[in-house]
């Protein structure tokens, strides 16, 4: 039986981008279904992720896998013959999971503040955002990828945010490049990969989406 | 070379309890070092977890592994010959990771509100806490453990909270048993295991600790 793989997603989601990249890297054929998460979630989404009711949902032969980081691990284990994402050494695996968790805990919440707050709160948020990126840049070091010579798990977890950087910078009125030029070079390097280029939306489109969000939430 | 394993912990931490249980289940010999996380973190803790500066830290042959859920996975992979925690099937692994993530996202934050808030906020928190536990109880179903017939990954992730239930109920003035009797029976079942009995502190001691916390934060 051929695998039936469906991805329920919403295009600006940096979480959904991860799962798309993972599927593309493994060469898995899948059906992409765009969800309207703001106004009208599909019955399938609510059925497949009754706990969180959130995208992305990966549906493999009718069975749902939820949460993007878990989806990447699942894809890595099911399609294990090609492009492994996680190292095999337990210590290196733990380190990769640690940085994925760090990104998960820090980047979304702080990023949101760059367009949803103002004044002192905004100033603190943009400073914190740069500090988070500097920490990640320090972990990257002189390696081409977080995975070393190969594009891997942490790269997949982080790269979606790269498409949001222009929006964060525009609305937060700050600049990432001066202190994080190595990380920006890493982003450009990742964008050379077909999987990443396909999964990441145009940054200008993200800027437009954030404008919509600001209007939706009544943020001046 | 014999393995040198050190656990930096603070006894009331439900996160540290997980790592202790995992080590005990695998029969790993380790040195337990109690940290004073409120007033005086040790130089070793700050050196081994410079990013979060938090316990528990597992130090294996001089190298740190941080974040309790990652520590459980690491212990499972390194000492793989005994009592596997995670299933081998990728879909079942993804499900176990999903429930661990659910516990991680929901239980600590809501639990804290049961002793740190009052009025409407407290009322909402205690209702939410019961709903979270009911969701977990539904996942448990009629199985003896979340891992099925065997005590496994999700059981290890959740059981530490059981030692906090009396404190949550006392300060939040609510009762878990009426709607969650199956989950309470699961807790009692887990307490029969030597690993769990050793890792979980006496609930009355936790009540005393929460009283200290309330004074520390000036919460009446």
Can I get a quick summary?
Chain A has 220 residues and is an alpha+beta fold. Helices cover 57% and strands 8% of the residues of chain A.
Written description of the protein model:
The structure is a homodimer of 220-residue chains. Helix content of chain A is 57%, strand content 8%. The N and C termini of chain A lie far apart (53 Å). In chain A, α1 crosses α6 and α4 packs antiparallel against α5. In chain A, a hairpin with a 2-residue loop joins β3 and β4. Chain A is of the alpha+beta class and 220 residues long. Chain A has a 4-stranded mixed sheet. The model of chain A has no long low-confidence stretch (mean pLDDT 97).
Which helices and strands, and how do they pair?
The structure is a homodimer of 220-residue chains.
Chain A lengths: L4 E5 L4 H13 L4 E4 L8 H6 L8 E4 L2 E4 L1 H11 L11 H27 L2 H22 L12 H7 L5 H8 L8 H11 L2 H6 L3 H14 L4
Parallel strand pairs in A: 1-2
Antiparallel strand pairs in A: 1-3, 3-4
